[in-house]
Fold:
Amino acid sequence: MLLNKIKSHALSVFILLLTACASSPPVPDTDKDYNWRLHQEKLVQLTNWGLAGRISVQLEQEGWSASLYWTQVRDKYQLRIVAPLGRGTVEISGNEDSVSLHTADNRILEDRDVELLMQQNLGWQVPIDALVYWIKGLPEPGAATSSLEIDSMGRLAALNQSGWNISYEKYINIDGYDLPARMTVQREQLKLRLSINQWTLSDDP
Structure:
């Protein structure tokens, strides 16, 4: 009889533990907001970095993918898009004042408007000034934001800004920074998928 009571009590405790685990409350919004604020403050300080990965472009019924290399030093950026099968390399470099585009057929074009250069020569464009922030998992400061979603870790999960939809599928921790590893940037008929294999962080020069 005593053994049965002990077994019954142990079973009851086990069931209560399972119930407690299954009904763990979600992370309070106040905690998420606090973590998001800390996360933003940390990422804003990250101004010198590099990445390597893949970019996939889907435009209406056409699609292609290429290797992507990006180096950012404060407001200066350099992007290299290396297409497979001998299709050439496109290089975009610039800052807040000017930009140049080195085409796959070895022409060098310059303008103040990087989006115009991309549209005229690549057939698609994405706001590089905004992507500098989006690719780190931050909204662009001062831009119109329709919606913003934070995950349970206080990181950006989804964003609608300036008519673009940005979603984050995976993060990776690099030197204490949670940085995107997979994300999608989409507007109308254009969809960009970014898969980042490597982040390189550096101090101010």
